[in-house]
UniProtKB/TrEMBL annotation:
Localization terms from the record: Nucleus
Span of domain TF-B3: 4-108
Record-given protein name: TF-B3 domain-containing protein
Swiss-Prot/TrEMBL keywords: DNA-binding, Nucleus, Transcription, Transcription regulation
Originating organism: Salix suchowensis
Transmembrane feature ranges: none
């Protein structure tokens, strides 16, 4: 499974995280088993497990995958804003029961220089 890296849009931050369809089809679609939702525990950089619900449309030919449940809580806890980057890294941790780690990348000014900080 490939990693997913995405710069957050206003909708991603204020409503729900829109999952790129190609990544979804290649990495998670087969796990839905005909259902329209998949609850996926994901570990953040602090080691805390976040429970994200991935869902797709029930009608139409375009799936439009999103993360709905658990996403807004994560956004608020991490202080996410449009322009921040989210990275899902394939990292199996049987002890925690997770398959992915989620990282937040924020642009930070340090001594007048822009650097990336991972949260």
């Amino acid at each position: 499974m490939a990693n997913l890296s995405k710069t957050l849009s206003e909708t991603d931050v204020e409503v729900r995280f829109s999952v790129p369809s190609r990544w979804f089809r290649e990495n998670l679609y087969s796990r839905f088993g005909g259902n329209f939702v998949l609850d996926l525990p994901v570990k953040d950089r602090s080691g805390e497990v976040q429970s994200f619900r991935f869902s797709v449309r029930t009608k139409g030919k375009h799936l439009k995958p999103v993360i709905s449940r658990g996403w807004r809580k994560f956004v608020h806890a991490k202080g996410l804003k449009p322009g921040n980057k989210i990275v899902f890294v394939r990292e199996n941790d049987p002890e925690m029961g997770t398959e992915y780690t989620v990282e937040v990348v924020k642009e930070i000014k340090l001594f007048g220089k822009d650097i990336q900080g991972r949260v």
